[in-house]
Amino acid sequence: MTPEADANRVFIVEDEFMLVMLLEDLLPTLGYAVAGSAGSVEQALTDLEANEIDLAVVDVNLAGTESFPVADALRERGIPFLFTTGYGQQGMPARFADTPVLAKPYRRHDIQAALEQLQATQ
Q: Coiled coil where (predicted)?
């Protein structure tokens, strides 16, 4: 299924290859376009400059490195995002207390509902 031209573009920041593949397959079926994906903080920050992004899904832990610099850059650009993590809200910096957190593992319905909520904030 090809996403519509006006579909929201979702940037995926995730280091688990299988999850990236899952999201790349799933998002278009939910009406979203994949704006790209990055598996590290450095790659994500570079890709933010090169891609048009409407929403982002950001894993908190990228191969042992916290993704908070990516979240800061998204916030500076006014791009709504959510965190994914296996650890829940624990350990999140206070500055991200209002950021949605989707607990891993998540299901299709979970990511769909979370992205719909993000869209509402645009």
A: none
